Amino acid sequence: MKKNTIRYTALGVAFLLILGVFSMWALTTQESVTVGVGTIDPSVTVTNGANVTASEPILQDSVSGEYGDVAENYTLYVVDKSAQQEYTGAYEVTLHIANAAEMSKDLKDLSMQIVLEGADGELKSSYLTLENGKVSFLVGHDFFENSTGAIVNVDVNIDGGSYRTYEDVDAVSSFNFVIDVEEIGRTINP
């Protein structure tokens, strides 16, 4: 009886180890997801901002394991709705870190302020972190219209923040941002 107990215990432990190996394999092979280019409503066009076009870094140099600064006044995207001025409803603008799982291997902490700069300097801001992975803004038609009634572009900017790498990280992976701009079909009150 004692021999059977030992055998069954050994088989049970072996079974649990095998399941553990397969579940670990599943976790490590599913660490990233392929993403599309995002949803862009036909009433707007989105282009890369000047800082992206110039390949300027977002994270300022820092000592490994210590806090560093995130770039300020860094234009990621420019949203232009001048071709579709008759739409007067609201838009939802969502910015994602598409490779947040990959970035979390290099970064222990990340907090960057995302600012939408609309007409006449109107601002909307929120913080984007690795934990939340995205930030959304609800903007009305008036966010694109300046005081003279002209339609202007909206800039999606990074405006500072901080980050910290793990102590053994010498280089941080490149960010992969994705933006969605969608009509939500209703007006909003300012």
Write the layout of secondary structure elements.
Layout: H1 2-29, E1 45-48, H2 50-53, E2 67-69, E3 74-80, E4 91-97, H3 100-106, E5 107-117, E6 123-129, E7 134-139, E8 154-165, E9 177-183
Antiparallel strand pairs: 1-3, 2-8, 3-8, 4-7, 4-9, 5-6, 5-8
Element order, helices and strands? HEHEEEHEEEEE
Task: Note the beta-strand portion.
Answer: 25-35%
Helix content: 10-25%
Rounded mean pLDDT score: 77
Q: Which value, in Å, is the CA radius of gyration?
A: 23 Å
Describe this structure in words.
- With 190 residues, the protein is an alpha+beta fold.
- It folds into two domains: 30 residues; 139 residues, Jelly Rolls (Sandwich).
- It has three helices and nine strands, in the order H-E-H-E-E-E-H-E-E-E-E-E.
- Strands 1, 2, 3, 5, 6 and 8 form a six-stranded antiparallel sheet that branches. The chain has a three-stranded antiparallel sheet with strand order 7-4-9, with no helix packed on it.
Brief characterization of the structure:
This protein has 190 residues and is an alpha+beta fold. The chain has helices at 2-29, 50-53, 100-106, and strands at 45-48, 67-69, 74-80, 91-97, 107-117, 123-129, 134-139, 154-165, 177-183. It starts with a helix and ends in a 7-residue tail after the last strand.
